[in-house]
Design goal:
With 268 residues, the protein is of the alpha+beta class. It folds into two domains: 31-168, no CATH class; 188-257, no CATH class. The chain is built from five helices and nine strands; from the N terminus they run αββββββαβββααα. It has helices at residues 2-24, 117-120, 188-196, 219-227, 247-259; strands at residues 31-33, 38-42, 55-56, 62-65, 71-73, 91-94, 137-142, 147-156, 164-168. The strands form two sheets. Strands 1, 2, 6, 7, 8 and 9 form a six-stranded mixed beta sheet that branches. It has a three-stranded antiparallel beta sheet with strand order 3-4-5, with no helix packed on it. Helix 1 runs antiparallel to helix 5. The protein is elongated, with a radius of gyration of 24 Å. The chain starts with a helix and ends in a 9-residue tail after the last helix. It binds calcium ion (2 copies). One calcium ion is lined by residues 179, 181, 183, 185-187, 189-190.
Length: 268
């Protein structure tokens, strides 16, 4: 019992440090999607339950709209609601209205304040909702995906119909390295992965041995691997599916090394 108590007391300072850090900072490993090259349109009276009428930005956020009122995340809610948690659930918004004088760009996410959708666009209007929807660029934060992306509305049906359109940033192309077996080095074992999966299709593209990210394991992936043979995955590179730790995230890891509970070395 005494040993358990000692172990608990040793953990408390470290746990407190981590809890304080996590609660005082945005979570680590955020992604930034920039630009407006992806367009989405929902026509008036289009059925919001059909996937084609939803902008499935990620596996957690599917934006659509009913025949009236605001947009919502049909992945998590059945209709629009202005009550907390405001629609679209799982999203937070920044515009020049709730960030006066700031650059409204996803790359500037760390300097922006985020609010619910209606508030970010100036509150609820009379004929359209919200008032300044078509005149403000936005940065949208997808809470469950930790993604910041650029978005601007281009059309909005204020009378019944439920149509809307916007342009937003697409998902950035994945970073591939040629390290198909994810052991940290581009080596002969990656060739084996490529050979054994040759001609297969992969989803998402860039996974497995799809070094050239075209969705198929093909000769281009061999060339991709061959050109990078011997590379190791150091700073500034990322293997597909893995995020590079942010400096502040590394600080937590360092704290874990220096302040975390240590196994006793004394023999019993
Ligand atoms: Ca490898
Ligand atoms: Ca390929």
């Amino acid at each position: 019992m005494l040993g358990i108590l000692r172990h608990f007391l040793a953990i408390v300072p470290f746990a407190s440090l981590v809890v304080f850090y996590v609660s005082s900072r945005p979570v680590c490993g955020q992604s930034v999607w920039s630009g407006f090259s992806y367009s989405f349109t929902k026509s008036d009276f289009a059925d919001s339950t059909f996937p084609v009428n939803q902008d499935r930005i990620t596996n957690n956020v599917w934006i659509t709209r009913g025949t009236q009122q605001g947009i919502y995340n049909i992945h998590d809610e059945a209709s629009y609601s202005p009550l907390p948690p405001e629609s679209p659930i799982g999203t937070r918004w920044a515009t020049a209205l709730n960030n006066p004088g700031k650059s409204i760009a996803a790359t500037n996410w760390s300097n922006l304040a985020f609010s619910d959708w209606v508030t970010a666009y100036g509150g609820q209007g009379t004929t359209t909702l919200p008032t300044s929807l078509l005149t403000q660029n936005a940065v949208v934060y997808l809470e469950n995906d930790n993604i910041y992306l650029d978005l601007r509305f281009t059309a909005w049906t204020s009378h019944p119909g439920g149509g809307f359109a916007y342009e937003r940033a697409p998902a950035p192309p994945p970073i591939t390295t040629g390290d198909y077996n994810l052991n940290g080095v581009v080596d002969a074992a990656d060739y084996v992965v490529w050979r054994e999966t040759l001609s297969q299709t992969v989803s998402p593209s860039s996974s497995g041995a799809d070094g050239n990210a075209n969705g198929t394991i093909d000769s281009g992936d061999y060339d991709f691997w061959h050109a990078r043979y011997g590379n190791t995955m150091g700073a500034g590179t990322a293997t597909a599916g893995y995020a590079v730790p942010e400096p502040e995230c590394l600080a937590v890891l360092v704290a874990a090394v220096f302040f975390g509970p240590r196994r006793r070395r004394t023999r019993q």
